[in-house]
Amino acid sequence: MFYELTTLSCAPLALDASSRAAHGWVSEGEGRLLGAWRSEIGTLFQIKILRGFETGDALKRERQRALSSPRPFGMQDRTMALSMVGYARFPFLPDVEPGDRGGIYEFRTYHLKPGGLAPTLAAWETAITPARDYTAHLVINLYALDGAPHITHIWGFSSVAERAALRARHYADGSWPPQGAPQQIAHATSTLCLPEAFSPLR
Fold first, then answer.
1. Which helix (H) or strand (E) holds 180?
2. Could you write out the DSSP letters of every residue in 130-149?
3. What predicted TM-score, i.e. pTM, was given to this entire model?
4. Phi/psi of residue 150, nearest 5 degrees
5. Residue 117 in domain
6. 202 assigned to some structural domain
7. What CATH code is carried by the domain that includes residue 139?
8. Residue 200 counted as domain residue
9. What's the number of domains the chain is made of?
10. Strand runs (DSSP E) across the chain, as ranges?
């Protein structure tokens, strides 16, 4: 499966309208809607939409639909910017399935140094099982097919406190982060998001 993560950057009071418009847009197109969120901590006033596609051609057709539209994702003047990034999942991870993953979602994007993807994949594959109490909360980790090399991983937690406790425990016992992976990161961002009412990932 291929993935696309779309980010709408909106005017502060336009999130509800932008979310409704985006929902209508994706409902009319190809691909499977997997999740939709709005940012709460980190970069604010964003709507994020994750879709899955069975083939790369399907993703390309949907990308072309957006590029050809005067109002992709239902954008109006209230939508300030649009980002669309195509991804493939880390090959040792399962595809995303809808469901309840706790209600608090973290989006972490690591911009990698040149040549950093292969050692990052190897490090994560080794670390997934030893840190399973933590990595059970991993929704997906994806590497970008567009632009500069980067990965985006999405996590689901029941609370910020649960996230902090799990990270502290696994950092303390040395099972996380994956050994050798942080050395591949040029810079990173993290945003905490809440699911929209129409999101299959809750």
1. none
2. TTHHHHTTEEEEEEESSSS-
3. 0.96
4. -160, 160
5. yes
6. no
7. 3.30.70.100
8. no
9. 1
10. 2-10, 32-41, 46-53, 79-89, 104-112, 138-144, 150-157, 185-195
- How many angstroms separate the CA atoms of 86 and 106, rounded? 19
Containing structural domain, residue 98: 2-195
Residue 80, amino acid: M
Q: What is the pLDDT along the chain (202 residues), one digit of tens a residue?
A: 999 999 999 999 999 999 999 999 999 999 999 999 999 999 999 999 999 999 999 999 999 999 999 999 999 876 789 999 999 999 999 999 999 999 999 999 999 999 999 999 999 999 999 999 999 999 999 999 988 999 999 999 999 999 999 999 999 999 999 999 999 999 999 999 999 999 999 9
CA angle 59, 64, 70 (to 5 degrees): 135
Residue reference for tokens 């880390």: 90
Q: Does residue 201 sit within a domain?
A: no
